[in-house]
């Protein structure tokens, strides 16, 4: 008769959720390309047979991981649709770096994924690109709501600041680096929303 640990190892209830949770930790800590499927199975823990029953390849698992992140609301893009905040507050929240739950600052997972898979035709890169385009569209809608005359151009400037700040925060391992970009974003918003006669 098998033990409870054996049952968990074979899969059991919640195997998919455990696999995704394990993949999220491993991909964030060591990258997608630096993580093997056997390591994911060991961390979950599930058998390799169970792992491949849910995800046929590492690419499929990585896209599921990114999709789960996107739907969680726990990304830079997520703050742009958060209820209870004004459009201006949502935009400025892009520059609030979260308190890291590990000693290292991770930056934007979509940029990280695209950098690991630089071929624009690769499905992981394509999904990351889709999320970054969604981000700029959300910001475009918010600045248009604020009354900006050229919302698309301003949105591109703001998301460039946000992505750049997230990347530098990761490289420098400095969680509060976004404060510098936030100051620049405030200036851009004020300038864009101030009537020419009052500048």
Rg from Cα: 20 Å
How much of the residues is beta strand, in percent?
under 5%
Rough outline: elongated
Count of helical regions: 11
Topology order in helix (H) and strand (E) letters: HHHHHHHHHHH
Major sheet description: none
End-to-end Cα distance, whole Å, is: 79 Å
Please outline what is shown here.
67% of the residues lie in helices and 0% in strands. The chain has eleven helices and no strands.
Helix and strand topology:
Blueprint: H1 4-10, H2 15-30, H3 37-43, H4 48-54, H5 58-72, H6 76-79, H7 87-93, H8 109-116, H9 123-146, H10 151-172, H11 178-193
Helix pairs in contact: 2-5, 5-9, 7-9, 8-9, 9-10, 10-11
Distinctive features:
disordered N terminus; 67% helix; mainly alpha; 199 residues
Structure description:
- The chain contains 11 helices and no strands.
- It has helices spanning 4-10, 15-30, 37-43, 48-54, 58-72, 76-79, 87-93, 109-116, 123-146, 151-172, 178-193.
- The longest helix has 24 residues, at 123-146.
